[in-house]
Every structure is written in structure tokens, then in C-alpha cells.
## 1
Amino acid sequence: MRAKSPVVADVIKTLYRSLGMEMALRMARSLIEGYNISQRMGFPPSVPVPAQDAVNRMVLDLFEEGLFLELVEWLVRADRQGFMGKRYPIVGIEEIIQGMELEGYLLDPESGLFYEDPRRHRTPGWGRLKPGEEYSITLLRLDIVLNSRLVRGNDRGDIERAYDSLRDMVRRIVEKRRGRVWLWEGDGGMAAFHYGHPNMSAVLCGMEILNELLVYNMTANPLNRDMQIRAAAHAGFIRYTEDLSELQRSEIVKETVEIESGWTRPDSLSVSASIAPHVDGIIKDCLLPAEGDCPREILCYRIRPRAAARPAKGRGA
Amino acid sequence: MVDRSRVLDDPAALFHSGALDYVGPDAPEGFVDDGRLRSVEAFAQRAEVEQGRQRPHRPKAGSFPGWDALSEGQSYDLLIMYASLCDADGLRTRLGDMRFTRLKGNALALVGAMAQELDGRLWIADDRSFLCLFQPDSLPAAFNACLGLLANARLCSFEHFKLEQEVARLSFSFHRAPVPWQKPGQTGTIVSDAINFIYHLGRKFTPCGVIDLVRETAAELPERLAAHLVDAGGFEDKAILRFPGFQVSGSE
């Protein structure tokens, strides 16, 4: 986004009209600790700063500090929920949100945060996550069961076709719920969710991937046996980095992998105890406690054809 | 094919039309013997097996003239799909009229999108069911799409139908038969055995969450899909095969 973008001009215009000088300063101080407008503009403390110039300076300072999105989010919150108990109707807030869309950012109605428009950009950090900062993230880990046996027993072209289909299926299902595929290797991958209802989204994605994979196995799988996956959803805090290998070393990723590899049966989704309380109604109804002596309070989802009329393994191959 | 005087320019092309062997001008006398005939027979059997595996009973492409070319009042061989919202009366009672109307609208959009995706037509809709027409050779694709809808019924209920307490399910019935064509919206005067049959099948016979197919229609499914069907008995003198649906953990 450019400093001369129309949406930046709109924010400058509305800030003084809607908030006034004092409130605008409180907003700036909530984003930059100790923000001092007199100092920034070179005025002695005893000399009043011209209000319009001050607001202009505040917006540009926040823009230069990389906090313009946070500024607009603050305005949306003040308009919709108020600030310290008082509502501040922001003049032209809808036009500002539309202006942000033109700049490639969509407003997530659940969290009130902007994220990159997936039709224009799809970066692992949604165009918002900053390296070194800690975020609440929900992860969905997927692993292809007996990958090496599948690879050994099938033609290389068929394997590539089947694995490409799975990867495309996962990407489509994850991205339609505002998730991002963070890692994808030969035998599986990991998706992350931060916007919307991340816990619910991860569970719904895991369920849909199992459902779609079952239909794929019934209808289009070119391999000599069903492709099976184990899936696990888990949530926690992560210090974001663009270095994938560093991400893999984080505690929450290790825990998610442990749930998937240690406590998840083939063709199943495991939902960790950190997510389960966020799962509602008819979705929770189909989650059952994991079998065996699982030390974690894991819930499990499975789907299969109703009758035992499935064809035997080895479709003529 | 015996072509001793080499009148054929492209003998290989005839193999695409089903030829099994070729004896050209350079073939020596006695070339066609018992061994050669056995080879021809084996080749013919292999071709039949492969054809059966890849495209069972599939009509030739191009047999459907296109929706815009259909003449009103004339009958065409089409694939008919009846989709029904299970326990519609119960849903209406439990949800109330307003939410049920919204649910029905969402279900209509879902089935309509499926019909559009497969170049079919959502032909007739009432308060609990939808009748779609597809090109006669569309069964494998339409069946796949229905499998997806059945497998994702719970997700669909939660995300699209906004239901939090119960799952709204669909059931599907398929029949391929001649249908007197009228444009959607102008179907009130149609008299058709096939339409009557599919309505009766869908409403009186097909249970919730399954796919029923008339046996002759099901013969168009590839072997791997047909392997999931079970015998469901007969209905109005027609044998019915059934895909019994999916079972999800926590549900019966």
C-alpha cells in the first residue's frame, strides 16, 4: 500500500471529524507507546499543535511504522463496539473498508482484523503475521498412511496424479475457510488457521478432507489401494517465522505431530482438548473419545460407507 | 481383413473401428492358419474386456443435441434425478416456517449448482424435492456429485443451512428414460410415465441419505462405482439398486 493511496487520505479526513484531536491522540498512543505529537512535529510542549496537521502527521507516522492496518482496525472497533464504553461513529467507515479491499485487504467479520484478499495474494502469514511476534494459531496436520508402500506398489505417474489430487483437494478445502497450507511434503502437510473461527475451521476442514478423500477413493483413485490419511487438529501459540524449518521446531507443531502420529487411527481426524470446547452442536455430535489409553483428551471423527459392500483391495492392478 | 491387392491406403485406421487382423499382399500363402486364428480370437476377447472395463454401456458421444436444440413436446432419452429433502414436514415443524423456507432455498441453490456444474437442468422444484435432467450419459458424474453431497451432509447442514441441532439430509433417485421436453417453468401439463415413476420412487421407496438407481440405469456406472451398490428389491416392476449412504462416527 502506498502512503498516497486514497484510503490513507480518507482516514486522515475522517480521523479529525470523527474523533477529534484528543481522542485521535489516545488512539495513536494505544498503537505506539508514548507517542508524543509535539515532539514528532518539533513543537515545544507549551505551543498548541494545529489539529489538522497533527492528525495528518499521526496517520503518516502510523503508516511508516507499519501500523496502518491496525489503525483502520481500531477505527472499525470504535465505530462498531466503541472505546471504553462509548461509541464513536466514524464518518465514511464503510468507504474506508471498501478502500482497503481495493488495496487487497478484506475485513474478517469475526475478529475485526484485516487479512490479504486470497484472490490477489496467498502468503503463509495472510499478509499480516509479523516474524518474531506470537500469535494464536490452530494447526491441522495430515499424514498419508503407509506412504512408502503406496509409492513402491504403484506406477510413478499414478502416484503423482493421486498425490497432486490430494494436495489440490487440501488446498481448496483449507483456503475456502481462510486457512493457509504452511507445509506440504511428499507424504502429507500442515495447514494453519488464524482468522474467522480458526478452531472450528480446522475441524471442518479435517472432516471435509476425510469425506472427500473417501469419495475420491471410491471414484477416481488410480492406485491399487485406497489412499488413507491421519489428521489432527490442535491449537496454541506460535512465534511466527517465515522459516519453515523453524516453524516445524515450535512446540505446538511438535504436539500436533505427536497427536497425529501417536493417537490417530488411519482414516480419522483427532481433535485435541484445546479445540474441543470450541466445537458446536451437530459437529461435536460426531466426535467420539479416542479409543485406547490415550493420555490426552482427544476426540475422534471417522466416516465410512454404510454397508460393508466396499470392493476388495486391488482394483485389478 | 484381407487386402491382397492393396486397395486400402490406411489399414491401421480400420483397427480403430473394430478390425481384428490384417492380411496384406506380402503375406505368404498359408499365413492364415489355426494359430493365427487363435491369436485373432484372443485379441478380440482382450478388446472386449478392455472396452467393458473402461466404458460400460456408455452411449456414443454426440447423441444429445444440446438443451437449446430440444423441441417442446417431443420426447428425449434423458437421465432423471429426483432429490428429496428428508423428513421435510418434521424439519418445518422443528425449525418454523421462516427457517425452513431459508433451508429449502439453500438446498435448491445446492442442487441447482450441481445441475449447472454438470450441464444439466433443474427442471421442477416443490416444497421438499427437486427434479433435475441430465444428458443421457451423465450418470457417473452425477452419481459422484451425489456421493459428495451425502458424505458432506453434516458439514453442509452446519455451514450452508446454518443448522445447529440436526442434520438435514437429502436422498437421490436416478432413472434414465424418454422424457417429453418442456422448458423449466412450463412443466405443469406434462404427462409422463417416467416422471410419475421417479416421483413415486423418490417419495415412497427411497429412504433418507441413500442413492437409488433403476438397475438398467445403474448399468452405465463404471465397475468400481457399481461395486458399492446393493440390491434394494423392486418397485413398480423395476429392479432397484442402492448406494446405502455413509456412516459417520457418533451417528447410528
Note: The longest strand of chain B covers residues 75-85.
## 2
Amino acid sequence: MIVFDKPKSLTDTPLHYCPGCTHGIIHRLVAQAIDDLGIEGRTIGVAPVGCAVMAYNYFACDMVEAAHGRAPAVATGLKRANPDNIVFTYQGDGDLASIGMAETVHSATRNENITVIFVNNAIYGMTGGQMAPTSLPGQVTQTSPYGRDVKTVGYPIRVCELLSTLDGPEFIARVAVNNVKNINNARKIIKKAFENQINNKGFSIVEVISTCPTNWGMTPEKALEWVDEKMIPYYPLGVYKDRSAEIQAKEDK
Amino acid sequence: MADKVLMKGNEAIAEAAILAGCRHYFGYPITPQTEIAAYMAKRMPKIGGTFLQAESEVAAINMVYGTSSAGYRVMTSSSSPGMSLKSEGLSYLAGSDLPALVVNVQRGGPGLGGIQPSQSDYFQATRGGGHGDYHMIVLAPASVQEMADLTITGFELADKYRVTAMILADGTMGQMMEPVELSADSVKTFDKPWAVTGTKMQRKHNIINSLSLVPEELEQQNFARYERYKTIEENEARCETFMMDDAEYCVVAFGIAARVSKNAVIAAREKGIKAGLIRPITLWPFPKKTLLDAADKAKAFISVELSMGQMIEDVELAIRCQRPVMLCNRAGGMIPTPEQVLAKIEEAAGGKM
């Protein structure tokens, strides 16, 4: 009996991520969703600039590497060209919520029929730990060495809450991958975000609260605890918008 | 043979793009090229294509990047300030060896500048515009017919060499109306086995990418790209020559400046001055050989430009500084008159350099 196997839609290339980083888990969850839905042969992934920049080596489906923050625009071009393809972006917090905020908001409001996997670890990892748009108040980073001072640099951006004010997007949810329960829930939600696209429902974004032990300056174990203690209280988990479910609920009344 | 229709230059580009098989247009409003977007907004939904007004020039060029990755003919258009914003995407297109057609209907700059015609994006266009070592094929139409013809040529060359082709027009070319003949009869298409369309579980995954962290590999990629550029320089340089057989005073001008210069050359001939015109149709690759050959007989060259003098550097390089090169120019949206160009030819002929 096989109890653990690598998803088919991941390649054999060893991941370059730091020890304890949860990108590996999130790659696996995305690949499992692709496997479960049997869509690898028609899926195109768009990699970001950031820690996941080389995701094109890890996913076995066709891949495109986008400029920093532009993945939703690139995905729009891909999806409009071939609506039968399943197109997903995989983006970090600097990519999606800072330099690419316009692309994020506008692809959401167009209800572009794509799936966005948004990995929020509250820091710029690839460049060595600078303050991100999602860094927490008081968080020490290379570019906020005295802690994020909200009086001078403002507050973190809660992407799910912000996008939920739009009429456009189909599905918005935030999950975490710091324990088995959260991982199992994340698996279901990520699969749903792909199913929505297959069913032509439109823009589906899953924010995944992730860790960065290296740049947080913590052990992997402590980083997982920090997610519970600091991240989730600021970024509550849950489904923020599910238009089809809302319509169904109204009809049922 | 197709019928002649009266069209604006901008509309001719749009219709020719459709004839070339382009079904995807992404753009952002900016004067003086908005007719292209307006035309596409009307036509694309009727023919099963995409017209999408992007949130920014940056987004538009990255949508182009996406559709080109999927192997489709795709275009965007803008004017000078917008082209600066697209430059990031132009660099990525080059780094990923993706074909695309980009139209720049130039206006006066720098900064927000004005909305009147200009050729002051010559450096930006012919040197690439964005970061890194790369070139685009730059096509400079001088009539509404050429706006259409070079659009089709641009798509073909872009696909053939996996590069971006740019139509470098100006506000006059965009707004001017002339009769034009449109035909899709001889449009060439190219296979794109590199495109991302889904593996269908029948091949290894395709990757569209400009990242290469190993310097030895990145260098080899640059070498390979420049081998392709060399082929383009050898095979695709185009120009029109006018009264050049015995020309002693050679005017070099493109686009609207060439139309003005042609009148000046005719007027100079009437005065007994052996003037001629070389009109580059490709600005990159620049028609170096034609200019160098002309230097055998020519005593002087005159670069006529709607800028502070940009192409003049390519003229000097092409003739290896063997002859004096004079500048006849206007800037900021102004256009030189035939009289101004004639006066410069007379000045050259009078030896007052």
C-alpha cells in the first residue's frame, strides 16, 4: 500500500527552498489539486519574481516566468488566448501585494478566469529579508531594523479583505499550512480554486499563510508557532467570498 | 486585387493586424494612437478576438507577453510616454525570445511632452528601450499604405526571428488619411513548437523564461541571440532611394520627415543641385550598406529629423564619418518645411559647413 507519493505534476527537480520553508508544502498542494482534477496536460503555471521564481522547474505542466508583479497580466494573456487551458499564478507578498497590486486588483475585478495562489510570509525572502507589504506592525526586517513603524511606513495590507470589497471576483479565501489540520483544509480550498476555473466561474485567489524561518530568524518549529501566535490573528483564516455559494444560499431561501 | 479604401494611418495598422491573423489586442488609452484601440474595440468582438483595455501600459505589455507565450499573434500600441512604461515588458519579451508587434505613434517629449508628431524616440526604439542587450526590428512607415504593409511585415518578421517588431510612426502618420489597399493574400505564418499550450501529456513541459542564473549560460544565450540579430542585419535592412544615382548631397530621413525631404530634393534638382534621398524603412537594422555606398559619390549628408538629432549618429556610423553630416531638425512636435530642408541642402552645396 502506498501511503505517501510525489504528485505526478511535480518534476523530480530538487526544490531550492530553505529548510523549514513551507513553499514545498504549497507546491505539493497545488500539484495534488492538478493531479486530482486530471488537468496537468492543459494547465499552464505562471511563476513570479521572488522565492518561487524557479517554480517553472518544479511543476511538470507548461510554465511561464513573469516579470515582478505581472503574473496576473501574463495569465490574462494566456487565458484569453486559450480559454481551454487552466492557468494559475503562484506569487509571493511583494510580488502580488506591492509591485503587482494593480495587476492583482484589476484581474480580480475583471473576474479573469484564473487561479491565484498567493503565498504570504510577511517578508521578501529571495532578496534577503526586507519589509513586505504584509510585514506585521513592529516586525524586524532588514529594511525595518527597528521594527515596522506604522506611523512612517503604514500598516500591512490584508489582501483578501481588500479584494472582498470588489463585485468582480468569484472566490477569495485565506488558509495556512502550519499544522496538519490547516494543511488538509488548504488542500480542499486550493482544489476548489482550480475547480472554479474549470467551471468557468472566474477569479479565485487563495492566500496561504506561509513561513520564512531563515529571514524571520527562527527555527522551523518556532516559525510554525509564530504563524499561530502572530500571523493568523492579523490575517484571519476563512472564506472571504464565494459568489456561487452565496447565490445558491439565496436561491435556497 | 483588393479595392482601395480611404483610411487613417492608425486604422490601417489595426485592420492590417487583423489581416495578419492578430486576434488579440491589449492597450491603454493615450493620444495620438487611440484610433487603434477604438478600431480594435469595435472589430475584435465581431471576429472572435480579444480587445482588452488594460489597467496600465505595464499590464498591457505583460498581457502581450502571455498571449505570445501561447503562440498567438498579438499586439499593443501606445505613444511615447506609454512606450517608456512598456519598456520593462519589451526587455522580458527579448529575454524570452517572444515575438510581438508593438506600435509607437510618437509624440514630443521628454516627460509628458506634447501630443504633436515627433521622432524623438529613435534612440529608445533602435537601442531596445529596456535593460539588457537586445534589439527590436524597427519599421518606419511613410504612408498610410506602408502603415498597413509594414504591420503585416512586422508580424511575419517577429515570428520568423522570435523578436519584437516595432512600428515607429508619428502623430502625422497616425492621423493622416490616404487611400490604402489591404490584402491578406500572402501573409506568412510560422510554427511555434516552443509555445505553452498545455503538454497534453505528450511532451516535456515548455518553459517561457528570461531568467538564467549561471553566467556562462546567460552569456551563451546572449551570443545566440546576437547571431540571430546578425542574420537580421544581413537580410532585413530596407530603404527607399530617390534620385540617388548621381547624388552629391544625400538627405537621410524617415517617416513624415522623408515626405518633406522628397519635395526639397526635387526643388534642389530644379536649382541644379544634385540632391538625393535615402529613406530608411527599417531603422533597426539600419540600412548601413546603402549609406556607405552613397558616400562614394556624396560630398555631404543631411539628416532630417523631428528630434534634436538622433538618427544622425547612425548616419555618421554607417558612412564611417567619411563625409560631413549636417542636421536639419525641428523638435517638440514641430515639422521641418521643404524650404528649411532645401536651405540646408543649399548650405551644404555652398560649402558652408
Note: The domain at 23-252 of chain A is CATH 3.40.50.970 (Rossmann fold).
